[in-house]
Amino acid sequence: MLLASAAALPLLLGAAGCRSSDVFTGPDPLAGRPPLGHDVLTLQAVIAAEENMIDLYQLAISGDSGTSRARTLRSLLGQHQQHLVQLKARLILPRGVRGDGRSPHARGGSGGGRPPRGSTVSIARLRAAERASAADLVRRLATAPPALAQLLASIAASDATHVTALGG
Amino acid sequence: MASTGVVAALQAALAAENAAVFGYGVAGAHLTGSSQAAAEQDWTGHNQARDALAAMISARGAVPAAAQAYYQLPFRVHDASSAIRLAAYLEDGVTRAYLGLVAVSDQRLRRFGALAMQDAAQQAASWRGSTLAFPGLSLLAGQAFVTLAPEAKAELAGTG
C-alpha cells in the first residue's frame, strides 16, 4: 500500500469513499494541469500577432529589396523584432507547456493572420495591420497586469507611429 | 491602484502637459512656416489635454497642481533645429507621463492613457523624423530609432 504510485491514488481514495479534494487543501494535484493564467494567454496572443506582423514585413521587403522604401521597412521590422524579444522575455510557461518555436495562438483581427507564401504585401496592408495592432493592444491592456499593460501600451504607441511612418 | 494612485498618475500627466504648454511657447518662437503652424497646433492640443486632466482631477475631489511660472529647459533653444529637438523632447516626456495612467486599475483610464501615449508618440516621431520601438519606456536597453529619409517618406506616402 505504501508503495502505491501517485497514479493509483485516485483508485485508493475512491475505494476509501473520499475524493482527493477531501484530503488536500489548496489546488487538487489530481485535477490535472491548472489552466494558463489570463496574462499568459494575453502574452501568447500578442506574441503570435507580432510574429504575423514580422511575416508581413518580411514578405513586403522580399519583393522590394534595395530601395529606400525597403530600408525603411527593414528598420520598422527591426522594431517589431525588438517587440517580440521583450514579449517573449515575459512569457513564463509551466513545465510541459509548449513554448518553443512559433506561438500556437493567432490573434484575430489585427494582422489578418499569416500571409500565404508567395503573396505580395502592399504598404496599405502594412498600415492597416499596424493600425489594427495598436487598437488590439489597447483593448488587451485593459485587463493585463500593470507592468504588462505598460509594455503593451508602449508597443501600441510604437505601432501607431509606424502608421505615420508608412504614410498614414 | 487606489484612488490616491489614480490622482497621482493624473497629476503626473498634468505636470507633463503643463511643461509641454510652456515648452511649445518657447519652441514656437524659433519656428516659421509649417513648423510653426505644427507647433501651434500641438500647443493647442496640450492646452486642451491639460484642461481635461484638471477636470478629471477635480472630479475626484483633488486640486489640480498649478503650472510653474518657468520651466528649466533641457538645453539651450536658440534656433529652429533646437526648437524642433525641444518639441520632440516635450512629446517624449508627455508619452512617459501617461504611462503611469496605463498602470491604474480603472480600465477606462488605462485606455485614456494608452491613447494619449499614441498621440504624443506620433507627435514626437513627427518632430524627430524617426520612430521608437518602445515610446515612453526607458528601462529597455538598446532602444532603436528608425530614421526616415525624406525620399523614403515620399515613396511611402505615394504607395499603397
Would you kindly provide a brief summary of this structure?
Chain A is mainly alpha-helical and 168 residues long. Chain A is built from six helices and no strands. Chain A is elongated.
Tell me about this structure:
The complex is a heterodimer of chains A (168) and B (160). Chain A has 168 residues and is an all-alpha fold. Chain A has a domain of 97 residues. Chain A is 58% helix and 0% strand. Chain A is elongated, with a radius of gyration of 22 Å. About 3% of the residues of chain A have low confidence. Chain B has a two-stranded antiparallel ribbon. Chain B starts with a helix and ends with a helix. By secondary structure, chain B is mainly α. Helices cover 66% and strands 4% of the residues of chain B. Chain B has a single domain, classed as Up-down Bundle (Ferritin), CATH 1.20.1260. In chain B, helix 1 packs antiparallel against helix 2, helix 1 runs antiparallel to helix 3 and helix 3 runs antiparallel to helix 4. Classes of the chains: A mainly alpha (168), B mainly alpha (160). Chains A and B meet through helix 4, helix 5 and helix 6 of A and helix 3, helix 4 and helix 5 of B.
Keywords:
heterodimer, A: 168 residues, mainly alpha, 6 helices, B: 160 residues, Ferritin, 2 strands, 66% helix
Fraction in helix of chain A: 55-70%
Proportion in β-strands of chain A: under 5%
**Given the helix and strand composition of chain B, which structural class is it?**
mainly alpha
Sheet having the most strands of chain A: none
What proportion strand of chain B? under 5%
Category from helices, strands and their pairing of chain A: mainly alpha
Kindly provide the radius of gyration of chain A, computed on alpha-carbon positions and rounded to a whole number of angstroms.
22 Å
> What count of structural domains of chain B?
1
Mean pLDDT of chain B: 90
Q: Roughly how many Å is the radius of gyration of chain B?
A: 16 Å
* Main sheet: strands, sense, barrel of chain B: 2 strands, antiparallel
In round numbers, the mean pLDDT of chain A is 80
| Anisotropy-based shape of chain A | elongated
Low-confidence runs of chain B: none
Helix amount of chain B: 55-70%
Number of helices of chain A: 6
Q: Rough shape of chain B?
A: globular
Oligomeric state of shown chains: heterodimer
